[in-house]
Amino acid sequence: MVGTANGSSKRPITPVTPRQAFSVVNNGAQDPGLWSGPDSISGSGLSGVKFTRDEVEALLNMKIKAKDKFNLKEKCDLMMEYIKKLRLCVKWFQDFEGGLSLEHEKLKMLFEAAEKKSNEMEMLMNAKEEELNVIIEELRANYAVLQEKFAKEESEKLAAVETLTMEKNARLTAEMSQASLTEDLEKAQSECSSANLKIISLNDMYKRLQEYNTGLQQYNSKLQTELNQTSETLSKVEHEKAALMESLSKLKGHHETQQAQLASTKASLEESIQLKEALASEVGCLRGDLHKVREDRDRQLILVQDLTAEVVQYKECTGKSAVQLGTLTSRSQELEAKCASQLDTIKSLKERLATAQMKLELSDQSSIETRAGYEEEKKLNSELIIRLAEAESKVIEGEALRKKLHNTILELKGNIRVFCRVRPLLSDEGLDETKTISFPTTTETLGRGIEVVQHGQTHPFMFDKVFTPQTTQEEVFEEISQLVQSALDGYKVCIFAYGQTGSGKTHTMMGTPGSYNDKGLIPRSLEQIFEAREKLKEQGWKYEMQVSMLEIYNETIRDLLSSNKSNSTESSGNKQQYAIKHDANGSTHVSDLTIVDVRSSKEVSYLLNRAAQSRSVGKTQMNEQSSRSHFVFTLRIFGVNETLEQQVQGVLNLIDLAGSERLSKSGSTGDRLKETQAINRSLSSLSDVIFALAKKEEHIPYRNSKLTYLLQVYN
Ligand SMILES: Nc1ncnc2c1ncn2[C@@H]1O[C@H](COP(=O)(O)OP(=O)(O)OP(=O)(O)O)[C@@H](O)[C@H]1O
């Protein structure tokens, strides 16, 4: 039995069965609760015996006490027991030590491997360090650049702070002006509320218009079929007219040759008459000569007879001297010779007379023939004149029919038509037009529809015709050239270019100066009018043309052809200047406006240039951009046909409207705000008038703006 050192408790020391390992021996390198020493004690016969620390300590501290102090045997046995246990323990320690040295070897190897690994790691770390050093260098360089930037930013910041203070000041002044603007705003708000009311009524009107529009579309399709029929008739009439014109020109040619023949026949007749008269006078002379010669001969014969009688008397009488006789004989011979020569003369004169008479007869005959030919020609000529008159009246009838059909077609197409022209993107515009605008190709919309994409939404629009960015100036003019022809036929035509600033109004109306292909509608219209005037001259039409050009800026008229540069109702201070007046015939006049008579398109081009210069002068005086005013070009056409006793009065108005802008978008203030408001008001009045005309309303609000009042005649 073994007791505890203090002997307080007694516990038998028995060989220990395998159990939880000794925790302290490995000095905490392992789990302190576990002993990983040798599993068995070889040769002890107690293999697998393990000691805990407490047990070892208890074993070492154990004091052997025998019950009987003097029982040495018991003591010896206990000692033996104790020694046995100690041996077991020593053996266990030895085994444990061997295990430990094995472990030590293993650990040494592990340590070497770990050292090797750590060396490699160190090398790697060195390499990494070098890399990091490079990165650090770079970072340092970056840091320097950043510092530089920072300094720059700092200075910029200072400048920005300065600007900010300036802006603050500006803001203060803006706030002051805002106060005054607030007043304006209140006024505008009251206007806005009335405008809202107007919008409501407009919306109402819009709905009604839509209904009206569907009705119109149905009516339009009906008209379209009628139009096609009328177009066919027109083309037939055109053909007939062309054939008539051809036969007319042939007849004219024939008539001219006949006239030439007649003239030559007349000339030859006159020549024959003159010849006849000359011959007659020659015959008269010859007859006179013959008569004289005969009288002379008779006198000579009487003289010869007298002389012969005298000679006989002398012979019979006593006979006078031979000399006297000789003289008498010679005289008698002389007289006989003279007589014979006179007989010869008489003979030749007779011959000449006979030939003259023959000639006279021949001339009489040819004169009779010529007269007959002349009469025939005259007859033919009068027939031709009748046919010509018939053909001309047919041409005139054809022309009247053409006019009627042409204007019926235009009326069928609609008295008010709206075309849309999309201009190409300019070089400095970075948009992709195919993404914002497309041209639908369904049967209904082809050539008439357009779709605009805004904020992802597609808005479709329909017009009478849509011109794509590729459409040329010539193609646009082709579409409106018929309207220009109507002005020559005595109609009142008005063509507006409407759109926002920069949308291409001036390009369409005026074109590029000096470029043949880029000529706009105004120069092309004038060329067509002057060409047509030349053609109509052949039908007896005489035309007179008058041109005037004005601009309306802030409801003020400016004469663009006036030699007085500062001309306007405002600047002149005279309210009567440039007052719009309508006379009883429905014509419009503007008092004191310069009106110029023109005879060729060149003259009009010159005037257009003058007007352009006047506009640029006005640009600096009144508005910065010409697009802030409406430009009105007016051509008055007076046509007279005396043969037909007809006259026409047409007007062609070509208008480049001021650019339309939204107040909210324009961001205008002060004068520019007033200007934009004036433009918007007049454009809205124009649309009111057009709507009222389209709806055939009784009251058309022409008086709401200068522009509509100026164009009032077009109802
Ligand atoms: N169909 C087109 N083809 C080529 N260029 C065009 C076309 N339409 C317009 N442009 C160009 O676009 C620009 C603006 O056109 P324009 O001056 O005619 O616009 P606008 O509507 O009259 O402007 P504003 O209202 O300011 O007077 C010009 O440089 C013009 O040459």
UniProtKB/TrEMBL annotation:
Annotated GO CC locations: microtubule
Keyword Hydrolase listed: no
Listed GO biological process terms: microtubule-based movement
Residues that, per the record, bind ATP: G499, Q500, T501, G502, S503, G504, K505, T506
One Pfam assignment: Kinesin
Keywords annotated in UniProt: ATP-binding, Coiled coil, Microtubule, Motor protein, Nucleotide-binding
Coiled coil: 111-247, 332-394
Top-level taxon in the UniProt lineage: Eukaryota
A Gene Ontology molecular function term of the record: microtubule binding
Domain Kinesin motor: from-to ranges: 415-715
Keyword Transmembrane among UniProt keywords: no
Family: Belongs to the TRAFAC class myosin-kinesin ATPase superfamily. Kinesin family. KIN-14 subfamily.
Annotated protein name in UniProt: Kinesin-like protein
